[in-house]
What does this fold into?
Amino acid sequence: MRKKILFILLSVFSLFIYACKKETAIQETLSSFLGFKQPVNFPAPAYKMENNPVTEGGFLLGRALFYEPRLSRDNTISCGSCHIQSSGFTQHGHDVSHGIDDRLGSRNSPPIMNLAWNKTFFWDGGVFDLDLQPVNPITNPVEMDEKIENVLLKLKQMPKYNQLFKQAFGTTEITNVRMMKALSQFMVMCVSANSKYDKVMRKEDGQAFTPDELAGYSIFKDKCSGCHTEPLFTDGSFRNNGIAAGPNNDEGRYLITLNPADQYKFKVPSLRNLSYTAPYMHDGRFLTLNGVLTHYTSEVKQTPNLDPVLQQNGQPGLVISGDDKFKLLAFLKTLDDKDFVTRKDLAEQ
Amino acid sequence: MKTIYIKSILFISLCAGLSACSKKNDVQPEPSKKATLSLQFDNIVGDRNLQLNTGLYTNASGEKFTIQLLQYFISNIKVKTTADKEYTVDQDNSYFLVKESDGATQFCKVKVPEGDYKTLTFTLGVDSLRNTMDISRRTGVLDPTGGMDDGMYWGWNSGYIFFKMEGTSEQAPVDPTGVRKFRYHIGGFGGYSAPTFNNVKTITVDLSAAGIARVREGRESNVHFFVDVMKMFNGKTNISIAANPQVMFSNYSVNVANNFTSMFYHDHTEN
It folds into this structure.
């Protein structure tokens, strides 16, 4: 009798093994997938995780969609085209984003980084829910110039997506809501929290700042942290930093609120991964960090709504000596997260 | 004699007819049962029926225009009985996109308890709460990914377009596409992370003058509204096509939206 039970158990077990074997590839990733983890030195995320809990299936689908050129009208441009991982998920070397048919946008591709903590999206903050964000680049005539319903039709023709949607949501049904939720799952997983700065803060691996970095850190706290708040290095606010309007007179946040006090204000960008994300500012006008620092020390223009932080000494701008700039740049380098820009799980497969 | 006979027959049949009518009306409503209430939005322009593309109309500024596209959201329907009992239609089933080009969409059908309703309240537009809800709660006409086809959503500045009217006028300047077009895309729910204007309009209509809605199971009470889009031009502010050919997300849109509330006129109710 006992033998019989043992035999049954054994056969059931081997069945399981067989079943597993069929999906070895999936199983391997399953075992290493940890889901969304809030770094210990970060605050709670702004994204409503409870409305879209990150699962491995959802993340894998989101990643496939992120790198899917069929999201664009002529199947040439994917999200990853303008948000390149090795460039900190920006489009390196482009002042403004370069879309379909070589059309150009009017603003610099912002990084897909720590979006789970973003309260608003785009340089003007016009979108307040990450789930709604992908609609814009997909339908924008100068970016992907496609219709969501066409994208869904294209995806439905690919057996791969039936499988991926099933793994993510339980059935093969392909809907816009599922597509957006999956893209969000991938994007909130793009967490950059492994820079030297983070390790120092978390006291990991005995990491410590060099004397220059440490001096730069206190200069940062004195001169920059009013807007670029730790640990995300942005307070998510909209400010006019005195770069003055460019040729296209982009009025920034004003276009969203129509509040005259918001004219020429743009969202404060994070200072993380600056080494990978040049050029800088909403229109990519500064090619180097030196250019940015020179702006803040000697080129800030007295424009309407210039941020009060930049007019404290009777004249616009910040006072930072040459030596201090050197130290500040040394500190900013500690915000580079090599792991983030090379991680295999965020890369196109 | 014969005439008296005929007269009395006529009289009796008239009475019978009347009593039949009143009988129908006397069916006591059972609020535990739900039945269909239909709101018909019949678009007109001043004294004339709206005819897309072909109709030529003149506004108070003396500008002649045609209408090529007209669509708007009706939502959040609420009713009040003659005994002042209020009922709010289940919100998830209370969003309608009325399109002039699609007759079926001009009938917004909701389920309400049986009753005699004297007041109807609805929103022209989409309430701010729904504007900020999770995407999974925004299906059907509210699908924000619908793109530019129906074009009732602003992706760049998250929010619905409540009312959209486009057409041509000799008084409109030539636009970048080379035509003399006016475009009124009116939205704005008040802003999410920063306050902006709010063009959500709640409209309450007293039905008692032109006919209360007697909602009963097995029939369909149809409240027939005339929606006079001329009143969008001619109102508290006269909207001039020449001066404001394109009104979209701008502070001026508040003037257009303020004219909306006078557009709705209850003509009659079919019970």
